[in-house]
Amino acid sequence: MAVHGARGRSGGRPTLEEVAARAGVGRGTVSRVINGSPRVSDATRAAVEAAVAELGYVPNTAARALAANRTDAIALVVPEPETRFFAEPYFSDMLRGVGSELSETEMQLLLIFAGSDRERRRLAQYLAAHRVDGVLLVSVHANDPLPDLLSQLEIPAVISGRRSAEETLPSVDSDNYGGGRLAVEHLLSRGRRTIAHIAGRLDVYGAQRRVDGYRAALREAGQEDDERLIVPGDFTEEGGRRAMAELLERRPTLDAVFAGSDVMAAGARQVLRERGLRTPDDVALVGYDDSAISRHMDPPLTSVRQPIEGMGRAMTGLLLEEIADRRPASSRSLDRRQVVLPTELVVRESS
């Protein structure tokens, strides 16, 4: 077979019309072959594929996406202020996992912040125009209207962490309940008896589950879980500082703290040092996420590792499957998937 250069008669890139002329078929037939339609005979398909190879034809992906009502783009939506996104390692690890999973595809990734009412209104208009094929939604609060909006618009979506036990959208989460238990069981095994918890925002289901795991571990050890030893933070360093100061006022004799994130643990550590309390001699400290912060603290922080980058990859894989499944959302409700990835404890000097 003679191999021709990848230039059309016009001297530019080969066109769909030139492929059709070479194969002796109509333009629509070439389009059907390129888009994988079964309504083409084997002989015709072979002729078109030969013409494509001879001419070096490269399909116009933008035009194909438009014809298929596709944008070849997905959005990573963060309903938080930009400052929090860049301050917390959780988000950068998640983004790394998403990018890794998309690297072998033709999909483009859009990063959209929706931390204010104005940004949410703009996002709703953007999504209503169907400018993306799907949405990854991270850091979802229990009363967040975005997941319901996505369902109404029938835009494929996957969220990081369920909003409740009755989640209806596909989701990927870590075992927050098991992670909370691991942290407290470890502290108990080190002889700690007055264990406080700096929780995350309790309108986040994952934070609630960490509290549940904390309480379960105490009860199984024969200890009552004292509500005065639980103070919610907001996953920020300053939130960890405020919560630690409040806990010390409530129970000055506490000997251990389980913080619901490494960032909050860093804030708690500052307060302990300011009060002249040594870690771990006076107060043992355990965080959550096993981020770079945990390794760089003094002393290095024991932390519950959740596979954040793996969560990003799993979310993206699920979303690509949702996008490829062209059935109406109503017919897919029974096979929605809730993926839960395991957590593990990484022990360092802080405990």
Unreliable runs: 1-10
Strands ordered across the widest β-sheet: 2-1-3-4-5-11
SS elements, strand count: 12
Share of β-strand residues? 15-25%
Distance, first to last CA: 71 Å
Average pLDDT for all residues: 86
CATH architecture of the largest domain, by name, is: 3-Layer(aba) Sandwich
CA gyration radius, whole angstroms: 26 Å
Indicate the structural class: alpha/beta
Number of helices: 14
Largest sheet: 6 strands, parallel
CATH top-level class of the largest domain? Alpha Beta
Shape: elongated
What is the N-to-C succession of helices and strands? Answer: HHHHEHHEHEHEEHEHEHEHEHEHEE
Find the CATH superfamily of the largest domain: Response regulator
Helix content: 40-55%
Count of separate structural domains:
3
CATH topology group of the largest domain: Rossmann fold
Describe the structure.
With 351 residues, the protein is of the alpha/beta class. The protein folds into three domains: 16-59, lambda repressor-like DNA-binding domains (434 Repressor (Amino-terminal Domain), Orthogonal Bundle), CATH 1.10.260.40; 73-173 and 310-339, 3-Layer(aba) Sandwich (Rossmann fold); 176-305, Rossmann fold. 44% of the residues lie in helices and 15% in strands. The protein contains 14 helices and twelve strands. It has a six-stranded parallel beta sheet with strand order 2-1-3-4-5-11, with helices on both faces. Strands 7-6-8-9-10-12 form a six-stranded mixed beta sheet, sandwiched between helices. The protein is elongated, with a radius of gyration of 26 Å. It starts with 15 loop residues before the first helix and ends in a 5-residue tail after the last strand. 41% of the residues are buried.
